Amino acid sequence: AVGRIAASTGLGGRGARRVQVRFDGAEIRDDTALLHGYGFASRPRVGADAVVIFPGGNRAAGFIIATNDRRFQVELAEGEAVVHDDLGHRVHLTRAGIVIDGGGDLVTVRNTPKLRVEGDIEATGDVKAGTVSLRTHVHTAVQPGAGTSGPPQS
Asked: 15, 23, 32, 76 — which has fewest CB within 10 A?
């Protein structure tokens, strides 16, 4: 059956996320398990569609195998894929490359001792290492010609 998410809660240590689903005809199913593929998780917004399977027709033992939210769709070319949310945050696998869009918010790379980039980096804004700006930093002891300057000032 296809229903709509009516409410959801945090995991609360229960394994699969549980949601409330409303079906046409005012049928409501509480505590319905929301299953995802390994390595992916989501918490759909109230109003999202839910595909619910009821093994053996038992309406008390359903589980959700897919969700979709028509309000937050992303246009895709054939063969493309995207992970996105309702705020405009996206990781878009386009035909031309990978686009990470923070939707106007900060994008953070966390818990890694190094970030390796194999290839060029292009930036339209400033780049900072600690407090040293690539655009505005100055060096000490600048030498003319082929001389070597001192370290950057912070």
From this structure: 15
